[in-house]
């Protein structure tokens, strides 16, 4: 089961309470908890792939979550290698930098 997420409330609870509630309770509470339909491992792979294609800062956080959800170094390397041809070489280089640091911890 996915870990209870509080990042929304921790970071934006006072500033944007409704957004924080939707982030923690709907996205991570309801959607990520549907593990009978799709495992947290697979949701992490999909999320990392999506964020990599967009080149957004949240990629690092979701790679960390992916590792916690059992995504192996080899799976992450394969995901990035595969997407390099679809999303662009520079984004792959950036993603590899994050993954290398994360999986060497």
UniProtKB/TrEMBL annotation:
This is Gamma-carboxymuconolactone decarboxylase subunit-like protein. PANTHER family: 4-CARBOXYMUCONOLACTONE DECARBOXYLASE FAMILY PROTEIN, BLL4600 PROTEIN. One of its GO terms (molecular function) is peroxiredoxin activity. Residues 17-101 form the Carboxymuconolactone decarboxylase-like domain. InterPro entries: 4CMD/NDH-1_regulator, AhpD-like, CMD-like. Pfam families: CMD (PF02627). It comes from Levilactobacillus spicheri DSM 15429. SUPFAM superfamilies: AhpD-like.
């Amino acid at each position: 089961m996915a870990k209870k997420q509080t990042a929304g409330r921790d970071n934006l609870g006072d500033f944007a309470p409704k957004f924080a509630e939707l982030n923690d309770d709907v996205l991570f509470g309801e959607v990520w908890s549907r593990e009978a339909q799709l495992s947290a491992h697979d949701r992490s792979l999909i999320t990392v792939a999506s964020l990599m294609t967009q080149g957004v800062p949240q990629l690092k956080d979701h790679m960390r979550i992916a590792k916690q959800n059992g995504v192996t170094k080899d799976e992450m390397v394969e995901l990035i290698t595969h997407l390099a041809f679809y999303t662009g070489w520079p984004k792959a280089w950036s993603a590899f930098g994050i993954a290398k640091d994360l999986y060497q911890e």
